[in-house]
Every structure is written in C-alpha cells, then in structure tokens.
Amino acid sequence: MAKQAFSLLALMAILMFTRPLKASEISLQHHGVILQYHHVSTETPASTSVSPAQFAEHMQYLAEHHNVISLQDMLYKLARHQALPDKAVAITFDDGYANILHNAHPILQQHGFNYTVFINPALIGKESQQLSWEQVRQMKTDGVWFANHSNHHQHLLTRGDMTKDQWLASLREEILSAESKLQEELGYSLKYLAYPFGEYNSDLQALVKELGFIGLGQQSGAVAPYSDMTALPRFPAAGTYANLNTLKVKLNSLAMPSLYAPLDPELRPDNLQPQWTTKIDTSDIRPAQLACYFKGDKLDVIWEMEDVFALSLPAPLGPGRARVNCTAPSKQDRSRYYWLSQPFFVPTNDGLWLD
Questions:
Q1: Rounded CA gap, 97 and 55, in Å?
Q2: Cα–Cα distance between 86 and 67 in angstroms, integer?
Q3: Which residues are CB-neighbours of 95 under 8 A, at least 6 positions away?
C-alpha cells in the first residue's frame, strides 16, 4: 500500500507540471516551508552546523507557532493542490551524519516531529561520521524517512571530459543506483533527490523530471502548488542562518508566484554577470514593495511592466555558489513575505566545483 501511495505521489508531481495554478487561485494555506539542516553538533564545521541547544530552541519555537508535518505529506498535498495546515513546516537533513541520531533525534522525538534525512548509500559503512544501515533502520522504526542525496555526494555538475550524453548517463546511474539501494535496505522508494551542495542546472532538472523524481535544492524560499517540483527551495537553518530571530521571518514566508522560467543557475564563462527579467503574479503583491538583495546589498529593481521587472548583478561572479533573493509583503497578511531565490553556480577555470 505504501509503495502504491508513493507511486501516486510521483505521478501527481509529474501531472502538476502541465496543470499549473495561478497565485490568485490559492490561499495562504497552500504555502509551506521546508527547513534544511546538516550537522547538529558543536564539533563540526560551523558553516553547516547548529548546536543542540540552538536546534532545541528552533524545535520549541516550531512546536509553539507552526504545524510540523512530514515532507511526504507536504509534497503530496502540493501536488494535489490541497491546502496545508496553517504555517506548515517540513524538516529535512542532508548527508546522513550520525550526530542527527545522537543530538537531533531525541529532540524531534520529544515533540513528535516527523522528518526526512537525505543520505548517500555508497558512503554508508565507509565513512565513520555517517549513520550506519543499522542506525538508519533503527530510525526508520521511529518514523524517520530517508531519501536520495545521490550515491556518492559528488558535485553532479562536474563533466570533465564527458560529452553531454555521457554526463547525463552517469547522472542517471548515480541517482538510480542510490534509489535502488534505498529500496533494498528500507523497502520503499520516495523518489526525492536533494541535490548535493544544492547544485543543479536545467539539464539535470529535465533528467529528474524524466525519472519521475522530485528535486530539492538549497536556495531560499517557500513552496506552493505552482512551485517547480524539480528544484524546490529549502531554507538552510544552520551556520549564519541559525539565528532564530531571522529564521522566524523565513518560517512565515510564502512562495513568490513567478510566471517566467528562472535562469539556468549554471553560468557559462561568457555570462558571469547575468541580466534577466522576472514576471510575477501581483494579485497579492504590491510591486513598489518588492525588494531584491545580493550578498546583503539591495539591487536596483527595474519595472518594465506592472508585473515584469529586470535585475542584473553588480559584478561578474567568481567560482562558487551565490543567489539573489527577492521579497515582498502579502496584501492579505503584511506580516508574511513572498520569497523568490535565483541561485547561481560557477565552476573554476578548470571546470571544478568548490565545496
């Protein structure tokens, strides 16, 4: 029965690509937020870590002010255009570190919160900081879900000397071999893929859609029925983003109803300072209140029409990951902000990707 339900979920997710909803057709309760964590520890890299005390503070706030639901329930309802519980939040972890079990799991169990861990099957049993399969199965009995983070946690955009077809074939094998191992060890296949390092491009998105998967990134933003199910945003909640005061605003955010396809986030060497236009549904947004930011600095927003605005980066991007975030308050609830994030990924001159 569970396997059939997950197959239906994948089917509904695919169907929604051809049946998009307009922002004016949904209510604020059709929006949800997905949180992303890595380490819950004081002994791991600060940029991807939240302390157990901070994590407990986050979870207590969620318990008091939000409705935590499973990622599966959130994505199922979004795909079927169903309303979510008020201020719904799903909790995810990337990389499957053992400190999730030791430090986060007891806190989550205390609150009765469901959560999903994206793991790399090929690394289990080979890297000591990873959960073991025995621990994964133990957590499964406690209601934890596990999903695909690729098999080896490599930069999926790395091509080397491969042709495009060879590269896509290698990605297909990387994704499907991990999913097969999850099915073998856990008895189910969610067909969710969290992109390692949050990196993806339009070709990878097309492959994810072809395989019937749902893709999750690391760019900021909320989710709604009109969200792109091959690149769902998640709010990182560790490192510099662990501050609860700033996280509160993000937890109340709404998915910006963008009507133009976003830029391909992988930038070519001849286009490291992109300019682009975005069209949004302004039925619940006042254009004059929209603001866009890059590395904390406000960008000039040029309105070309009442619902189309242009942006450009102030300087060419170097290797690494970057993003532009745009926000605007809701007319219905001025305490809540629509949020749109455009990520950018740039390799080194040698075609390598920075961790």
A1: 15
A2: 7
A3: 38, 118, 119, 120, 130, 149, 153
Contact 230, 264 (CB under 8 A): no
Contact 284/256 with Cβ under 8 angstroms?
A: no
Are 104 and 40 spatial neighbours (Cβ–Cβ below 8 Å)? yes
In three-state secondary structure terms, 10 is helix
Which helix H or strand E contains 292, and what residues bound it?
Answer: strand 291-294
Condensed to tens digits (0 to 9), the pLDDT of residues 22-72 reads 666 778 999 999 999 999 999 999 999 999 999 999 999 999 999 999 999
Report which secondary-structure segment, H or E, holds 198: none
**Domains and their CATH numbers in the chain:** 2-253 (3.20.20.370), 275-346 (2.60.40)
User: What is the SS3 assignment for 326-355?
Assistant: EEEEECCCCCCEEEEEEEEEECCCCCCCCC
Could you identify the residue written with the tokens 């949904």?
Answer: 26
Q: How many Cβ atoms from other residues are within 10 Å of residue 7's Cβ?
A: 13
Closest CA to 323 of 228, 251, 239, 235: 235
Pick from 9, 97, 116: nearest CA to 45: 97
**Dihedral through CA 132, CA 176, CA 17, CA 293, nearest 10?**
60
Over the stretch 249-296, which tens digit does the pLDDT of each residue have? 999 999 999 999 999 999 999 999 999 999 999 999 999 999 999 999
* 3-class SS of residue 234: coil
What's the chain's length in residues? Answer: 355
What distance in Å separates the CA atoms of residue 263 and residue 285, rounded to the nearest whole number? 22
Bridge partners (DSSP) listed for residue 342: 324
296 by DSSP, 3-state: which? coil
Provide the whole-model pTM.
0.94
> Does the CA dihedral 88-94-96-102 come out positive or negative?
negative
